[in-house]
C-alpha cells in the first residue's frame, strides 16, 4: 500500500511540472500559420511591439503573451511543494494559465470559429493548449491527493 500512496502523490506534481514546462517552452515557438505571429515566437513579440513592427497585436495580447510563460515558470517551480496553501496557489495559477491560453488561442492565433481566416494553429499554440489541458488534469489530481502532513496515516 505504501508504494501506491507514493505513486498517487507523485502524479499531481508531475502533471504540474509538465504543464509548467509546456507553458514556458511555447513561448519559443510560433503560434499561427498566418498573420502577425506566423514568423516570430511570443518571446520576441514584446520587442517587436515596442519597435512598432506589430501594430496588429494589442497591449492586452502582449501582456498575455508575456504572462503565460511566467505562469508556467511559477507552476514548474512550485510543482513539488507540499501544503494546502501551495495547492491553492497552484490551482489559482493553473486556472489563470488556462484562461490566458484560451484568450490567446482565440485572439492571437485567430482561431475564432465565427471568423475562419484559414490560419492553422502553430506548434506554440498547440503546446500551450496541451499545457492548459495538463494543468486542468493536475488541478483535478491535486485536489484528490492530500499531502502526508494532512493525512499522516
How are the SSEs placed, and which strands pair?
Elements: H1 2-25, H2 42-50, H3 59-77, H4 84-107, H5 123-144
Give a short account of the largest sheet: none
| 3D shape | elongated
| Annotation field: number of helices | 5
Q: List low-confidence stretches.
A: none
User: Rg, please?
Assistant: 17 Å
Secondary structure tally: strands: 0
Query: How far is it from the N-terminal to the C-terminal residue, by CA?
Result: 11 Å
Helix content: 55-70%
Mean pLDDT: 81
Give, in order, the helices and strands: HHHHH
- Percent of residues in beta strands: under 5%
Structural class: mainly alpha
Name the assembly state. single chain
Keywords: Membrane, Transmembrane, Transmembrane helix
Transmembrane segments: 62-82, 89-109, 121-139
Please provide a written account of the structure.
- The chain crosses the membrane at residues 62-82, 89-109, 121-139.
- Keywords: Membrane, Transmembrane, Transmembrane helix.
- This protein has 153 residues and is mainly alpha-helical.
- It is built from 5 helices and no strands.
- The chain has helices at 2-25, 42-50, 59-77, 84-107, 123-144.
- Helix 1 packs antiparallel against helix 3 and helix 1 packs antiparallel against helix 5.
Which features does this protein show?
153 residues, 64% helix, transmembrane, transmembrane helix, membrane, mainly alpha
Amino acid at each position: 500500500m505504501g508504494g501506491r500512496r507514493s505513486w498517487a502523490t507523485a502524479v499531481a506534481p508531475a502533471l504540474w511540472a509538465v504543464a509548467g514546462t509546456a507553458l514556458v517552452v511555447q513561448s519559443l515557438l510560433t503560434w499561427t500559420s498566418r498573420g502577425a505571429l506566423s514568423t516570430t515566437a511570443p518571446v520576441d513579440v514584446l520587442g517587436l511591439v515596442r519597435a512598432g513592427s506589430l501594430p496588429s497585436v494589442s497591449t492586452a495580447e502582449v501582456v498575455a503573451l508575456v504572462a503565460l510563460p511566467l505562469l508556467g515558470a511559477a507552476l514548474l517551480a512550485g510543482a513539488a511543494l507540499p501544503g494546502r496553501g501551495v495547492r491553492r496557489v497552484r490551482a489559482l495559477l493553473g486556472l489563470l494559465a488556462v484562461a490566458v491560453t484560451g484568450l490567446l488561442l482565440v485572439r492571437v492565433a485567430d482561431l475564432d470559429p465565427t471568423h475562419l481566416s484559414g490560419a492553422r494553429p502553430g506548434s506554440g499554440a498547440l503546446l500551450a493548449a496541451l499545457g492548459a489541458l495538463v494543468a486542468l488534469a493536475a488541478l483535478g489530481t491535486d485536489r484528490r491527493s492530500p499531502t502526508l502532513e494532512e493525512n499522516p496515516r
